[in-house]
Every structure is written in structure tokens, then in C-alpha cells.
Amino acid sequence: SQEDGGDGAAVDNEGSGAWTSKNRQLAALTAGRSLQGASIMMAMFASSELLVSVFRGDRIRTQRVLSRVGTATTLLGFLVSPLNGALMDSVGRRPFLICGSSVSAAIRLFISIRPSVEGYIVYRVAITLAMGPFFSAFRAAAADLVDRTSDEYTQTMGNIDTVATVARMSALAVSGMLTPRQSMLASAVMSGLAAVCFAVGTTETLRKEQQRSIDWSKLRNPFAFLVTLAKSRGLARLAVLSVILDIPDYNSTLQMYRSHRFGWGMLESSRMALAGQLVSLSNPVVLMTMLRQVGTRGTAVWSQRMACAAALVNAFVSNPRVVVLAPVLQSLRQGGSAFDRILAVEAKRCKLGEGEKEAMLSNLSMLSGVVLPNVFSEIYAWTADTQPNAVFILCAALHLINAEMVVPALWPGMS
Length: 415
Hints:
The protein is globular. The protein is built from 18 helices and no strands. The chain has helices at 16-44, 46-54, 59-90, 94-113, 117-145, 151-175, 180-201, 216-219, 225-230, 233-246, 254-262, 266-280, 283-316, 325-331, 335-349, 354-364, 366-383, 390-410. By secondary structure, the chain is mostly helical. Helix content is 77%, strand content 0%.
């Protein structure tokens, strides 16, 4: 693992060897991320369907349990994310990539063998501890290799996402033909392969000179990130913007809603998700075109408009074949990438480490993650028999407010 030099750094800025090292690292990251993406697609519908079977088809009860467990794991993530961020900036990114994939493989194997309410709770806790830092570590590793504020980073991540999308599409196509248990077992295999890929194909991307000592005083207080926000008006403004824009995205009732309205199971849900993944293959081109034509702010506005249109499709379209427009519209959302770019600029100006920044983002979403899934689930439960589309009408209104009022008011004064 030290073949790039004694300091274990993944990239040297000089010489043709650096090009080889950088691209080898990116190739390994792409392969591992794609396998993990395939694993997630395999488990996405299967895990909740296993819970439905435990509750003997009671989907309202299932949705409530999903939300309650989600609340608990959000609180857990809030408590551990400062430690994860500090460790990521101290010991590096690679341990989180390997451990996250290994743990997710083991726990998905477990739930495929012993599905139960208790087993599902253990499963969600383990996935929170493993996959939360995994994604942060992946983004940090990519940013170590390519400047996160540059067009090259946007293009590189677009290329990675394209390969990962093909893997996710393949997984969705297969999972629709499997039982929930079989799909979870296949998910475990994919995560295991991802762990092997990261272990064999990557070296540590964090340079020795970039390593930071752990400030244990901050770790004792999970709200310490507020001190960081208070030091930068730009970061504080972006934090408020992030929280508001994410509110409607905490609606997690879509799978149960479609099952209730159209009688869909895993096969139909997988096909719908597959349509969205197919459209998302165009995301790198769409993102770069939008950034050039309308800038980051315009990209964020149109992202919210697409989300509004998708919510309206879910709310009012009664033909199951036409509902495919919803994931198509959702796949064209590029606001997250635009926001990530301006956040990277501000974080770099404030000299935040990648791990510290990722921990801050994670903790920002804590209150919303605790409250909002339960709010949306209760709205759906109350209206399921009379106005089941009410929660999607609400989400459409929130997205429209974001597009026409929130983004123009709070987006930083840049293109």
C-alpha cells in the first residue's frame, strides 16, 4: 500500500508516475463506488419489503417503523459524525472505504438470513455507522486527487457517476427478478467485492502534510460545528440554505404510496428506479451545460423546479406507465452538484479539512432528519385512505417556494 512513496500519498504533483498513480486511484475508486452503488440498489427495495413481510403486508405500520428507525439512526449519525470527520482528517480516507464496505456486506448477509424487526433495527444501525462515513470518505478521497473547486473535479465525478449509474442500472434490472432475501444476499456480495477493490486497488490519498491532529474538545460537543459556522457568514448562509432546500427531500413515503395506489411490488419499483438511472447517464453533460448557461444559482433554481414537477407527477398522474416521468425529472436535478461547488469554495477559504466539512454537513441535517421523516410519514398515514397524494402536493409546493423565493434570496452572489 506504500508503492507511491514512503509517505503513502496517493498523488505526487510531478512526473509521469503521478499521472499513472492518480488515474489508478481514480479507477479503483470508480470500481469500488460502482460496486457499492449496485449493492445499494439491490438492497433499496428489498430491505423494506422484508419488513413488510414481517408485518404481514401492513404497509402503514411498516412506514411508521421505517420512520422511527430512521429517526434513531439520524441521532446516532449526529453523535458519531464529528469523530468520523476528525479521524478522516487524521488517519485518512481509506480505512473508512474498506470498513464501510465490509460492514455493509456482513450486515446485509445477516438480514437476508434472519429477517425480523429486531434484525432490521440492527441492520439500519450498522448501515448508518458504516455507510455514513463511507460516502464522506469517498468524496474526500476524490477531492484529494482533484481540486474540488475545479471543472476537472466536476467532470471527474461525472465520469465516476456514469460508470456507477451503469452498475446501478444492472443491479436494478436483476433485483426486480429476485425475491427480497435473494436481493439482499446479492447486495452483500457486491459490498464484499467493493471492500476487496478498495483494499487491493487503493492507497491512502491523504498526504502527511495534510493530516490534522484530533481536537478532542470539539468531539465532546456534537454541536461544535456551530462555532465553525459562526466564524464565517458565508458558511452560515450556505448552512441555512442547505437545510431549507432539503426539507421536501425527507419525504420517504414514495415506495409505500405507489404500492398502495398501484399495487406495485419490488419488480415495478425496480423498473421505475431503472428508468431514472437510465436518464441520469446524461447527468455529466446536463450539469456542465447548465453551469455554463445559467450558472450555479440558475442550476439550483431549475433543480427545484424539476423536483416540483416530479412531485406533481407523483401526486396527480393516475396511469402507472406515465408515472415514469417522475424519476426522469428527478434524475435531471443538478442543484446538489452546484451547491457542492460553492460550498467547496467557501470551505477552502475557511481552511476546513474535508472530513471536518463532511461532518459539519452531516450534523446540519440532524434536526431535519429526526423530525421530518416522521412528519411526512404521519401526514401520509392520516391521509392514505382519503387523500393519499397530499404529502406529494405539499412537497411540490415546498420545491416551488425553494425555486422562486429561497434560492434567489439566499444563494451567494456569484454566477
